[in-house]
Design goal:
Low-confidence stretches: 1-13, 128-135, 541-558
CATH architecture of the largest domain: 3-Layer(aba) Sandwich
Strand content: 5-15%
Number of domains: 3
Number of helices: 18
Shape: elongated
Structural class: alpha/beta
Number of strands: 18
Largest sheet: 9 strands, mixed
Helix content: 25-40%
Length: about 550
């Protein structure tokens, strides 16, 4: 306790004392003044807690705030200019970044926002160069990969001239006979990275005597959804038809009779299938995969999810997987296993270790894997739940969809639940906004063709769940809106990957509505990763060695 002794007559007449007295009273300071006398002096007692608070304030005011905003382009741009961060600023190892979203759990933060600007004009997977080469166009061609001349001519007919970085890394390894685990950014051209070497080897097989190589399925591509199966089959057919090869598709939502009808004819060279339909065909002995040359597990982070992993293990038991490149060189050799995805799932090593030697599996991992895309503008807006529909309508009006051309003007709006998709659709109908809906609870017949119509430009606005976030080609999409904030960083990466794709339109953007406190915690991690230029936390996984079986978190997609 601090005691102050002053003369009473001086104290009573001092205007300064009266001012200080009022300040102490507002600070809940307890004091007492003794009666005046010729011998007694008044005493004012200040609690020690107040003294400590005053000292802390004095120390804090002496600290000069660190300025992260300098001349040049901004990486982080917020409503509060003091929280901006320039592209050229780098945080120290032990620095704690000051976040724009730090106070977003407070009710008064609604209306606040910040933007992670696109600091590169070209996607990092287009060229193999660093940031200094961002404006350079790719110069490598498919001739450097030593694939078939007929296949290169087919690609040129489709206006595909330059391979992406992941294609330059993956194609040579597949052609050498290795089992591959490839993880690269969404939209980086992973489909062609496995289709091209497969077609190259199938052309070599085709040139051999049919007696040595009887008609059979040589390659099977397993994908998690019927929309992705239709897309992969379409890309494969566009390459196979000029080369005299056949691609066929078997998908979920069909009866046993329809599945059997796919295999009554002569077996195709490439089969694209969803796991449920392929398991049905295997159980009824409609096909034999013992002589398969290639098994591709596309969107591996989803296929190794608990909702698919049991079916995938059953499929793997029907295939003879090679343990080394030496076992794939013969005409009737074992199958190569190619696992392709945009993220590394945690439990993939446990499953693959049962069918092949992980030590001989080539892991191809992109440098920007699990990073926020540097070539896509991403905005986060704190908004009340009842204001999300007006905000969405405002952004749609800004785009002026009805006045734009045929391409590069699509909008994807993601919701977490099918019921939200339907409710939002009813709301937009009342506002006169044309749209289409795509969600997993729709019957298979209804879903067929919806996404194709969106790709062709018939529909410019698509409301969907995460069923449209994995692997689908959305090169004409200009804006992605997270109406419901994604439940994990994995879902965010897949959703945001619908823009800024190889061969897509320039200037893609992502807009995310942030409403609930648990969503704010995810935003904190994203903003911190963006300011530090690091990958998103919790996305790492080990595939380098076999690990004991344990429960792991994987991406959630139903």
């Amino acid at each position: 306790m601090l005691s102050l002794k002053v003369g009473y007559s001086t104290l009573a007449s001092s205007r300064h004392f009266q001012t200080q007295l009022s300040r102490l009273s507002t600070s809940r300071v307890y004091f007492s003044v003794c009666p005046a006398s010729s011998e007694q002096i008044p005493i004012i007692r200040v609690p020690r807690s107040v003294q400590n608070r005053v000292e802390n304030v004095k120390q804090t005011r002496k600290i000069t705030p660190i300025r992260t905003s300098k001349a040049g382009k901004l990486l982080i741009q917020s409503r509060n200019a003091n929280l901006n961060q320039s592209v050229g600023y780098t945080h120290g190892k032990f620095d704690v970044p000051t976040l724009c979203s730090k106070g977003w759990k407070h009710n008064k933060s609604f209306g606040d926002y910040f933007t992670i600007n696109n600091i590169r004009s070209v996607a990092p997977f287009i060229t193999a160069g660093g940031e200094k080469e961002e404006d350079k166009k790719p110069t490598e061609t498919f001739h450097k990969l030593h694939i078939s001349t007929d296949l290169i001519e087919t690609l040129e007919g489709l206006n595909i001239i330059h391979p992406t970085t992941v294609q330059m890394q993956t194609i040579p390894q597949v052609m050498k006979g290795h089992n591959i685990l490839c993880a690269a950014e969404t939209g980086s051209g992973k489909t062609l990275s496995y289709l091209l070497p497969i077609l190259h080897k199938l052309l070599l097989i085709k040139k051999m005597n049919e007696e040595v190589c009887p008609p059979e399925i040589h390659a099977t591509v397993v994908v998690p959804s019927r929309e992705l199966a239709e897309q992969v089959a379409s890309v494969s057919k566009s390459l196979c038809t000029p080369l005299g090869l056949e691609t066929r598709m078997v998908e979920g939502g069909q009866g046993v009779g329809s599945i059997k009808g796919v295999f009554k004819q002569e077996p195709p060279d490439i089969l694209v299938a969803t796991p449920g339909a392929l398991v049905k065909a295997l159980r009824r002995r409609c096909l034999d995969l013992r002589h398969l040359r290639f098994l591709v597990v596309d969107e591996a982070d989803t296929m190794f999810d608990p909702s698919f992993v049991d079916m995938l293990e059953e499929i793997l038991r029907h295939v003879v997987i090679a343990g080394s490149p030496a076992e794939t060189r013969d005409l009737l050799g074992k199958a190569q296993l190619l696992a392709i995805g945009a993220t590394f799932p945690g439990g993939v090593g446990d499953v693959l270790a049962r069918v092949t030697d992980l030590g001989n599996m080539v892991v191809i991992k992109s440098k920007m894997l699990h990073y926020l895309m540097p070539h896509v503008k991403q905005t986060f807006l704190k908004v009340r739940g009842q204001d999300k529909v007006p905000e969405l309508n405002h952004y749609l009006k800004q785009l002026q969809l009805e006045q734009r051309g045929e391409g590069g003007d699509g909008v994807l709006v993601f919701c977490n639940k099918s019921s939200t998709v339907n409710w939002l659709g009813y709301s937009l109908e009342e506002m006169g906004v044309p749209h289409a809906r795509l969600q997993g609870e729709m019957p298979a017949v209804v879903r067929t063709g919806i996404f194709q119509g969106f790709q062709q430009g018939t529909t410019k606005l698509l409301l969907c769940t995460d069923v449209a976030s994995r692997g689908l080609d959305t090169s004409r999409v200009r804006l992605v809106v997270n109406y419901d904030f994604p439940e994990s960083h994995t879902d965010y990466i897949h959703r945001a990957g619908r823009v800024g794709r190889a061969g897509g339109c320039q200037g893609g953007e992502v807009l995310s509505f942030v409403t609930h406190p648990w969503e704010v915690e995810l935003v904190w991690k994203m903003e911190t990763a963006a300011r530090r230029r690091t990958c998103l936390p919790g996305m790492e996984s080990a595939i380098r060695q076999t690990q004991p079986k344990m429960e792991e978190e994987t991406g959630e997609l139903r």
